[in-house]
Amino acid sequence: MTVLSAPTSHLPPIGKIQKYSAEDLTKAVRYLRLIYNPDVRGIRRIDRNRQKHRSELLSASLKPGSRPSTDPSLEALRSDTFERAYAIRWLTALVSQVYQLLEFADEDLHGGFSDLEDLLQQASALLAICAGTASAGTITRTFRFQNGDTPIEVQLTDVPLENQDYPSVGAQTWGSACLLAEMLVEDPGVFDLGSPPTGVRVLELGAGTGLVSVALGKLLNAKGCCAGTVLATDFHPSVLANLENNLAANFPPPNLQSVSVSSHCLDWAKFPALQDPSAPFDQPFDLIFGADIIYEAEHVRWVKNCVEKLLRKPFSPSVDVRPAFHLIIPLRPTHTLESSAIEEVYPFASEGAMDGGLVTLSKDVVVCEASGDVRSRGGTIEEVEYVHYAIGWCP
Ligand SMILES: C[S@@+](CC[C@H](N)C(=O)[O-])C[C@H]1O[C@@H](n2cnc3c(N)ncnc32)[C@H](O)[C@@H]1O
Fold first, then answer.
1. Which of 17, 49, 287, 309 is the 20 to 30 A CA-CA neighbour of 357?
2. H/E/C letters for each residue in the chain?
3. What per-residue confidence (pLDDT) applies to 247?
4. How confident is the model at residue 242 (pLDDT cuts 50, 70, 90)?
């Protein structure tokens, strides 16, 4: 893990900015982005192998009780208001210097200004993020996906973990959600949503910042789906508050769109014991999604108990979608529950699974670049692997 130093000690001095080359200044702006607007780790797909039963990968999986990693020194740096104020002053000075250069420099002598224009654009964009209304430590990002010719844009805010409060990991967006959102938007047919049916009901468990639900809601609306429902659920109060803000930012009121996207509390530990769940959990769901929601030993069973209760049974075909639970998990080399536990509770249909129970219908391994993450810069991790399980009722 590379530890980033503070802007006050890393950046070229404000009074000497004009002495540095456009290349050095561009590097300095990129450095600030790592702190204030990093990409989500492991989101660029570089390979996609459809592989059922690739169990050797799963043996490199994660220890029960351990947790997704966050970098506390980076979060402390991001939340440091003095450092942020310095970064804002530095960027303001840079933008003003570059403006002057562009105004007075002789284009013929400099062989064009494209480097300076790029630098100005990058510095201004980062300045807007650092100086925005969001409080210190928050990151607001725009995720862009493409469904054919239709662009789907999602704006999300991640908030800092509360005093490194582990249960609030959902206040940040994780790579699994980026990957699942991208897969859904680019290839909805894989999820039986190529021609989204009227009245489709979708549930997301452990939605965190809401990327999957928002992207899906926008996609379904763009594809003209009628009367659909997307429920983004989580259990931690600060995660739910941030989720609600993100939904409101993406579907500003009055939201008259045909597919509704809303947030609700659903605790996997408690829900299965409820006798008569109230609306909106009193009706089953055609599709259930979960991104990076299995990282403590008990999660596998809790989530399974919820899915058993909430996934529509195949013998009630109210909607033309095969009921399925799509689960994406990262294969972290040092963290979380052993993935093999997933295959224990959802055996492959061919492996003597009980008729009528939940089984793994397919398993894909997806390899992504670990780019955009400070933790990968030590050169140790270049790729992140994810597994996509499609789970459904045993045929
Ligand atoms: C690693 S985060 C993933 C969040 C999001 N799916 C993503 O990929 O960005 C795990 C999520 O599961 C939620 N979670 C953990 N335990 C839960 C429980 N018992 N009931 C409901 N949600 C839970 C957390 O609040 C968090 O949002």
1. 49
2. CCCCCCHHHHCCCHHHHHHCCHHHHHHHHHHHHHHHCCCCCCCEEEEEEECCCCHHHHCCCCCCCCCCCCCHHHHHHHHCHHHHHHHHHHHHHHHHHHHHHHHHCCHHHHCCCHHHHHHHHHHHHHHHHHHCCCCCCCEEEEEEEEECCEEEEEEEEECCCHHHCHHHHHHCCCHHHHHHHHHHHHCHHHHCCCCCCCCCEEEEECCCCCHHHHHHHHHHHHCCCCCCEEEEEECCHHHHHHHHHHHHHHCCCCCCCCCEEEEEECCCCCHHHCCCCCCCCCCCECEEEEECCCCCCCHHHHHHHHHHHHECCCCCCCCCCCCEEEEEEECCCCCCCCCHHHHHHCCECCCCCCCCCEEEEEEEEEEEECCCCHHHCCCCCCEEEEEEEEEEECC
3. 97
4. very high
